Amino acid sequence: MNLNKTVSNGWRCTPSAHTLNLPGGWVEKKYFQSICTGIALTRGSVNCHNSYPNSPKKDFVFDDVMESTLVKLRID
Predict the structure, then answer these.
(1) What's the burial of 40, exposed, middle or buried (CB within 10 Å: 0-12/13-18/19+)?
(2) CA dist., res. 20 & res. 22, Å (int)
(3) Residue 28: pLDDT over 70
(4) CA-closest candidate to residue 3, choices 18, 17, 15, 21
(5) What is the Cα–Cα distance from 75 to 28, expressed in whole angstroms?
């Protein structure tokens, strides 16, 4: 499954796998990481985000990134 594309609900995900080595070399943990971004796919979504009263950005357009989430899971 290729997650490096827009999925049907408007999220784009870019997965990667890493190994974390801490100083001293005695701890090695592997983890999966993905940054998923919420994409403006409908006029209603764009209008809703542009109407947030406390938002510093009021000029979202179609296909803009409107939010993001970092997902990190430890692999044992």
Answers:
(1) buried
(2) 6
(3) no
(4) 15
(5) 11
Which of 49, 33, 36 lies closest to 9 in space, CA to CA?
36
Q: Residue 74 corresponds to which tokens in the numbers above? A: 């430890």
The band of 49, judged by pLDDT with boundaries at 50, 70 and 90, is confident
Residue 70 buriedness (CB in 10 A; 0-12 / 13-18 / 19+): exposed
Q: Where are the alpha helices (H) located in the chain, listed in sequence order? A: 43-50
Query: pLDDT tens-digit profile of 65-76?
Result: 888 888 878 776
Q: Is residue 11 a contact partner of residue 39, using CB atoms and an 8 Å limit?
A: yes
Check residues 35 and 3 and name the one with the higher pLDDT.
Answer: 35
Judge contact between 31 and 18, C-beta under 8 A. yes
